[in-house]
Prior knowledge:
- With 298 residues, the protein is mostly helical.
- The protein has a single domain, classed as Orthogonal Bundle (MetI-like fold).
- The protein is 72% helix and 0% strand.
- It has 12 helices and no strands.
- The protein has helices spanning 10-40, 60-66, 69-100, 107-119, 122-132, 139-146, 161-185, 190-198, 203-230, 234-240, 252-262, 266-297.
- Helix 2 crosses helix 12 (266-297).
- The longest helix is centred in the N-terminal third of the chain and has 32 residues, at 69-100.
- It starts with 9 loop residues before the first helix and ends with a helix.
Amino acid sequence: MKTLRRPRSKQDNLGYLFILPFVAVFAIFKIVPILYGLFISFLDRNTVKKAMTTVFIGFRNFQKVFSSESFWKAFANSLLFAVIYIVLRMVLGFFIAILLNRRFKGRTAVRTMFYMPYVTNVIAIGIVFQYLLDPFNGPVNAIFKMFGMEGPRWLLSPKMALPITAVVAVWIAVTFNVITILAAMQDIPDSLYEVADIEGANWWQKIRYITFPLLIPTLFTLLTLVIIASFKSYNIIMALTEGGPGGASRTLSFKIYEDSFIYGFYSVGAAESVFFATFIIIVNRIFNRIRSSWERKN
């Protein structure tokens, strides 16, 4: 049987007109660059002289990338950064939100202070932390000197530079988790906590059996966003260490920038980007399957 379609009304056309600017901007600044990056990853645009070449070289750029020791080191750094970032941001965001959900004097002011790093320029934050963690004249190491100890080298240490950068990134972004979880906590009925008090439940038992289970859908959504954000580490790396010392904090996103715009290996950088994007998509697909499986069981 042939279905009848309702003719478009002026209201429908007006709706399409309103979303047209967004679609156009999204296509120009998102879809076109993605397709262009995929396209040049198969070309030989690896010097400034060849920036406009259309010579097709197949998977040669990918072979060069996968045989590069510096690429795999940067990829390992990205994974380490992501693990530290995800764990700290999710755990701290959850418990800070619980603490800030309590009623205490000055709660509004404290909540506002927590939000300030999230809206502050990353480069400005980087300058501040470079000063604070200066191993020679910084105020943090000055505290160690007061007790007759020599402070760590912080951002100048190959072992500490990347973890510290991840911690600073968490300090900047954890507010988003806190605000989101706080908003979700307002939907939890107070009667549940009142019953728990009557039953003699302590603080931890309320979190374990009431707060955490009811926040799981929100936490799953947050975790998806945090996983994606954990691999976008370029800004904070540039602000704090610029990939140093000796490449110890060079993540893959920073290496892609270096190869493409510092050294002019545009096609190699595009191949690295294609690999990285594919990896992130696969990670999110795996996580979404885990999430779907949990939702079906519950």
